[in-house]
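Appendix B. One record, verbatim.
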Amino acid sequence: MHPYEEAMRELWNKSGKRPWLREQIRSVLPPTRVRSMNVEFEIHPKDNRTEFGVWKHGRPPEHRGINAVSDALAQKPSIIVDVGANVGAFSLPVFKTLPSDSRAILFEPNPPMLSRLHRNLELNDFAGVEVFECAVGDKAGSAQMQFPAENTYGSGRVGVEYDTETAIDGAMVEIRPLAECLKEAEVSHIDFLKVDVEGLEDRVIFPLLEHDAALHPHLIYFEVEHSENWTYPLLSRMETAGYKLMRRFGANRLFRLDRS
């Protein structure tokens, strides 16, 4: 551990219940290398909640979901798809548990997160990983990313603005339907789909369920906290398609497809 980073961690631990001090400490935390859930990461804790969680606790905020998905896949050769991959904090630990002939298709449109994702892939020398540098939606197009506040660069979304005075605009990004990208990647089935797109989950999952049933993921993990932004009846469509709720993880849900 670098002496400066070690000093910051010691100061953080001593800051106790002084939010203003902790905010100041976090604002100057440097990028650092960590090993979390058997994966090497270069994290930037000052401007991304997920990376800060890794710095603070030594594991991603969604570690329970990661473990549940890894157990459900049971170390079988799998194809996993991560829409809103961020820095890879969810999908890379899952992928690490899978056999070498597995594949990961990752989507991340936000330039800073995309750069960090590529860096983390490089650190681990993963094979079988393909990155799409675009957002996913119900139709092709482009839109400007927006973030709920400054220094929250892991919470970007497209197409729906944040209703807050502190929201800031980011880069213009391409939007593509998921099925179109999977066809390009020659993906014929999906063992696990994770979606983290800040309230636009329906635009990603619903159109996919309208395609051939062969593309219906065996497992789907996504957040329901921002469902007020949905325009499609996602949960009822999933029920019709045969999905059953497996587990809840805070605002996230893990569903399994019942093919019986």
